[in-house]
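Input chain follows. Return structure tokens only.
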Amino acid sequence: MISYEFPLTEKVRTLLRLEDLFARMAHFTEHDDGFDNHAALMTLFEILEVISRADLKSDLLQELERQKRVLSNLHNNPAISEQALDAILNEIEQASRLLLAMSGKIGQYLRENEWLMGIKQRAVMPGGTCEFDLPSYHYWQQQDVCVRRENLRSWLAPLLPLHTGLKIVLRLLRENGKVFHFTAHQGTFQQMQGGRIAQMLRIRLSRELACIPEVGANKYAINIRFIAANYAAKSALFEQDVPFDLTFCSIST
């Protein structure tokens, strides 16, 4: 099976983007090659851009507090494990403390690093970080891998409370999903929503089906089209029946 997640709100879209970027940053930081470390640094710049566009700290704190209230009301519910409930509440409490401890404008310490911002400015140009453009960056790339890795980790570390918080929110969102099995007849599917909409949709289908889902959704309906997986030709509808699992993910409010 192959799975696709489609955010239906701007907040969830931002959290999914950051989740992907933090995972990519971690991946490239742990590799030894200079090209991998370059990819890690470019990813750090992407993280900085995303967090600059949203009041992420405030949004995460509000969402964590809301989930804390909702989950606290589940105490003494015989269908809920008290141990598991206490564990997630402790995670939320710790994540909130870490977020509250973040002072100043998020990522400002990176913006004040003239050396990093010089690299970021050149990086938007094709081939703009060659050694003759940025000899000091070339020097850094030739340093021992332990030095480079420690630098990358130190530049990322002040942003990790955001990662901790968003992981909890996305985990709760995914765990609150309701799964249904449908068939898209001749590649198309529509379901009326009755004014209610999930915050994220997850679509799972067989890897053997050479098609890719495209989703359009509003408070009235969900529309899914399965497009033929053709990497050269103009996109065309996959005109076969497509069985798939659809998960409606909505966090408790």
